[in-house]
Design a protein that fits this description.
This protein is mainly β. The chain has three domains: about 40 residues; about 110 residues, Immunoglobulin-like (Sandwich); about 325 residues, Kelch-type beta propeller (Neuraminidase, 6 Propeller), CATH 2.120.10.80. It has four helices and 32 strands.
Length: about 525
């Protein structure tokens, strides 16, 4: 029908061949009427559409080109007829070359289909799509205009076609301003804070002017129960530690105390330590001193050993426990701290249940109170978009020798032997204050295809979050999937950072959460 309409519109007369063209008109008119009657054989009404109502884009897609992006032709484009816009709501991966894209366009009854775009010299290029449908179009210099002219040659409409590309790479750490809350406490401005994780609960202890609050939750983003507690001794909250379901803490005099009810009541262990390093399996590890000599000690089984050279006696990071195919026992690792002379350290230490070993080859800056946590980076296949997770260690924060907190995030891909500065997209944003003596945890959060529900905890700030890009799901992989049901939800390992001290020594009253971008995307089956 579209071609016939074009024939009718382009007929013209001249005196020389009037009779011949008159015969042609009758023949063509008969063809048109027959076609219309055959198309409307179930109706007595023949409808001839108004030209202006048919200047429509009915479908748009990109042509396949694996040299640009795998399954490029499957990227979904929305067509907004009201605002005359065509666009991919879910952006293509960062770095995708959109300067030479083939397009597939379907339209209504029109006499002309044109594409207008800017060149690198800002000149307009006009492509007649009816004659040059294989022409490559440059979307890199802004939206392309699709101009449709109706069959009457008068009515026209311009559509803006925009190919959106992500401005970040998928392997980047998203510190989201929408994922922040105050520390879980009833104290308005706590002056001390530490959060630990038992086998089943997270416990956050805060204090101010002799008041102490213990908050517990099953997960960092869930509901926190808060309770004011009475302390029969003056605790050093920075020395709070967890072992299985028990809590341990040192008094300001170094006395070790134990709690079996998440910090509500405490029992004296009749042991004096200088510092609690952390927990390894069923053993608490620490440092004891007589004022001149420092030793590694354990509890409840009591063992004593001389500390190695460059070993921290205070200010080490949290322990990270890992296993590998090269070891028979789990390994506990920590980083940074300060030695007996007060010197800041950059060393990474590992413990296998019997001895400590310094793993350091290349290192981050020397600092105490650093954050250490296990996490992931991702490698994405350029042919099928499948993601391979790689286990890494991240280190950040800590007070440097100049008294300032370090702003740099470091990464190790070999379990602490070598460190280097992480990619710029994994560094802390300006809205997060660099801290020392903060605590970080990684907890799985379930993402879903369903519309996001508002948080049940009102203390969390609410801001718009990044949507999951449609292009991350490879349609071919779904077709070839052996899964019995489609993926509708998946777990995202999410980082939660509690408190810490700023450069002035003031507690930062915040809990921040973060996750690597790739892992937020819906996985391929």
């Amino acid at each position: 029908m579209r071609k016939i309409a074009k024939i009718i519109v382009t007929l013209h007369f001249d005196n020389k061949n009037f009779m011949l063209k008159k015969v042609a008109i009758f023949i063509i008119s008969g063809i048109v009427m027959a076609g219309m009657m055959s198309c409307n054989h179930d109706s007595n009404t023949i409808t001839i559409p108004e030209a202006s109502s048919e200047v429509l884009v009915t479908a748009f897609s990109l042509k396949a080109n694996d040299s640009i992006l795998s399954s490029l032709d499957s990227v979904y484009f929305s067509i907004d007829l009201n605002s005359a816009r065509v666009y991919n709501a879910d952006s293509l991966p960062k770095g995708t070359d959109i300067s030479q894209l083939g397009v597939n366009i379907s339209v209504g009854y029109v006499s002309k289909t044109q594409l207008l775009y800017k060149t690198i010299f800002n000149n307009d290029t006009v492509v007649d799509y009816d004659e040059e449908s294989t022409e490559k179009i440059n979307f890199a210099n802004g939206p392309v205009t699709l101009r449709l002219t109706a069959v009457n040659g008068i009515d026209k409409r311009d559509y803006l076609i925009q190919v959106n590309v992500h401005t970040i790479v998928s392997d980047s750490l998203m510190w989201m301003p929408g994922a922040r809350r105050d520390l879980p406490t009833t104290l308005e401005t706590p002056v001390a804070q530490k959060t630990v994780r038992t086998t089943s609960k997270f416990v956050c202890m805060t204090s101010k002017d002799g008041e102490f609050v213990v908050a517990t939750a099953d997960s960092p983003y869930g509901e926190w129960s808060m309770q004011n507690v009475e302390m029969s001794f003056n605790p050093d909250i920075d020395e709070l530690a967890a072992l299985d379901e028990k809590l341990y803490i040192l008094s300001d005099a170094g006395d070790l105390y134990e709690s079996t009810d998440y910090g509500v009541t405490w029992t004296d262990c009749s042991t004096v330590w200088y510092h609690i390093l952390g927990a390894y399996e069923s053993t608490l590890l620490g440092v004891a001193t007589d004022g001149t000599i420092y030793n590694n000690v354990t509890y409840p089984e009591t063992t004593t050993a001389n500390i190695p050279d460059r070993f921290p006696v205070k200010g080490n990071s949290q322990f990270v426990i890992y296993t590998s195919e090269w070891t028979t026992q789990p390994q506990a690792i920590m980083i940074g701290g300060r030695d007996a002379s007060g010197k800041k350290l950059y060393d990474t230490w590992a413990y296998d249940g019997n001895r400590w070993a310094n793993l350091t080859n290349t290192h981050p800056i020397a600092a105490d109170g650093m954050i250490l946590l296990p996490y992931y980076t991702c490698k994405t296949s350029s042919t099928n978009w499948k993601v391979t997770k790689e286990s890494v260690l991240l280190a950040m924060g800590g007070q440097m020798s100049n008294g300032k907190n370090d702003e740099i995030v470091y990464i190790s891909r070999d379990l602490g032997f070598n460190w280097h500065q992480a990619d710029s997209l994994m560094q802390l944003p300006d809205f997060i204050t660099p801290v020392n003596m903060a605590q970080a945890f990684v907890e799985d959060v379930t993402y879903s295809d369903a519309p996001a529900k508002s948080r049940s905890v009102s203390e969390w700030n609410s801001f718009p979050q990044r949507t999951i890009p449609r292009w991350w799901v490879n349609p071919l992989a779904v077709v070839n999937s052996r899964a019995v049901a489609p993926i509708t939800s998946w777990d995202v390992p999410t980082i939660y950072v509690f408190g810490g001290y700023d450069n002035d020594g003031t507690i930062v009253n915040s809990v921040w959460s973060s996750a690597i971008t790739t892992l937020m995307f819906k996985p391929i089956q």
